[in-house]
Design goal:
heterodimer; A: 198 residues; mainly alpha; Rna Polymerase Sigma Factor, Chain: A; 2 domains; 0% strand; B: 241 residues; Serine Threonine Protein Phosphatase 5, Tetratricopeptide repeat; elongated
Chain lengths: 198, 241
């Protein structure tokens, strides 16, 4: 650690606070959260008879889901962070076992319905949801790899919650407006690539 | 089409008024082409999120691979007597290598860089350029971090820390001449706690060219005599030299 600062083990509260930030602090808190309960992976292997890879996937998905919930303030702190995370992990493991038993486990990477969808009115949401269900997500994922490194990086920063004014510094744009225009151009580029194959 | 995307983006960024939002929702129900664009926007967002999640999982996997061998409680418990005996033996061998056997300046430098310069401590709550630079450094994105720190050096913002960090990143990138330039600049800066000379010596030890060892030794002696930052480590090193 530089400048003689020793990184202390963070408390649950510090991790939760760190996750509410958007820069280095958040990345460190995410990694710390992962490390904090990594022994759950062994629990997954022991209790649910999962392979190490399966248990790792369930635990990683648990942490990603917990991060999202903490950021969205869905974690109310009624139980300890550990108990709450273990509950999510337990559900993921059970879900995985169910999928395994019905032979649907080829890819258990579930895409959660985007929170943004819930901003729409009920009737508008059902129209959009229907259209989303009919789209080819795998193809869109492939096209994302083809839009160019600059665009990909820009969209990843955006999806990670970085505001445009921070992306200005990270990617050396001139202004936040330029970031927004570039981001929308990248989306348009992705749309054109996607449309050319559907 | 870009206009539509901008409009959709404003909606989901909650930049529209209640009335504008109502009109937006209504348009989705009445204009299938527009609804299709909204669906694409959300699908794209979710796809990028999925890609991000996959990158984060890859990072978690790296962390897990690092810590995995150390966490086998069942095995450790079962073989505890053997494990503790082996640990004592290893510690004795290590002690002999470090203190009894010859330890090279290069090895000392590499150990220090690995142990002490792997992370730059972030300041909780700050999101300025210096913090972004630290974040990139801590993620191993050294080139991007260096760009930011050099920008700060040029702009005179947080200059002393930016010089120090620019030197450290240059050292990690094995751009030794550049690192030495930054650390020399730091040495010549009036600071209460100045690690410039120590880092200069460290860089020479790591570069390990003919004459570097002798020069590094002189610098470390200066660090001790002038009671500069890291003089305790400098003393420890010279004792083992």
């Amino acid at each position: 650690m530089v400048s003689g600062n020793i990184s202390p083990r963070l408390t649950e509260q510090e991790i939760a606070d760190g996750l509410m930030q958007s820069g280095t602090t958040r990345t460190r808190a995410e990694e710390q959260l992962f490390r904090q309960y990594d022994y759950f992976i062994k629990e997954g292997m022991r209790k649910y008879s999962l392979s190490e890879d399966e248990s790792f996937d369930a635990y990683s998905d648990t942490i990603l889901s917990a991060i999202q919930k903490i950021i969205n303030r869905s974690f109310e702190g009624r139980s300890s962070l550990k108990t709450w995370i273990f509950q999510i992990f337990h559900n993921k493991c059970v879900d995985l076992l169910r999928k395994k038993s019905t032979n649907k486990n080829s890819v258990h990477h579930t895409l959660e319905i985007t929170d943004l969808l819930h901003l729409l009115s009920d009737s508008a949401r059902s129209v959009v949801q229907r259209m989303m269900d009919n789209s080819d997500r795998a193809l869109l994922g492939q096209r994302l790899q083809e839009i160019g490194e600059q665009c990909r990086r820009l969209l990843l920063f955006w999806a990670d919650g970085y505001p445009d004014k921070e992306i200005v510094v990270l990617m050396e744009y001139k202004t936040a407006d330029v970031v927004k225009t570039s981001r929308l151009r990248c989306m348009e580029k992705l749309r054109q690539l996607y449309k050319s194959n559907t | 089409m870009l206009e539509h995307l901008g409009y959709i983006d404003s909606y989901f960024n909650k930049e529209l008024s209640a009335e504008e939002r109502r009109i937006f929702d209504q348009r989705i129900e009445q204009d299938p082409a527009f609804a299709e664009e909204v669906a694409f926007y959300l699908n794209a967002f979710d796809s990028v999120k999925a890609e991000l999640a996959s990158q984060k999982k890859a990072r978690f996997r790296e962390i897990y691979q690092e810590i995995r061998p150390a966490q086998r409680p069942g095995l450790v418990r079962r073989f505890w007597p053997y494990v503790s005996a082996a640990a004592v033996t290893i510690a004795l061998i290590f002690r002999f290598i470090v203190f009894g056997g010859g330890v090279t300046p290069l090895k000392l430098a590499e150990e220090y860089i690995h142990d002490k310069l792997d992370l730059i401590h972030p300041v909780m709550g700050n999101t300025d350029t210096l913090e972004l630079g630290k974040k990139l450094y801590n993620e191993g994105k050294y080139n991007e971090a260096l760009t930011l720190f050099e920008k700060l050096v040029e702009s005179n913002n947080s200059k002393d820390l930016a010089i120090e960090y620019a030197g450290i990143v240059s050292l990690r990138l094995e751009q030794y001449d550049k690192a030495i330039r930054y650390f020399t600049q730091l040495e010549n800066t009036r600071l209460k706690v100045n690690p410039g000379k120590f880092y200069h010596a460290l860089t020479l030890m790591k570069r390990n060219l003919p004459g570097d060892e002798v020069e590094a030794k002189k610098l470390l002696e200066d660090v001790i005599n002038d009671k500069l930052a890291r003089s305790d480590i400098a003393k420890e090193w010279l004792d083992k030299w």
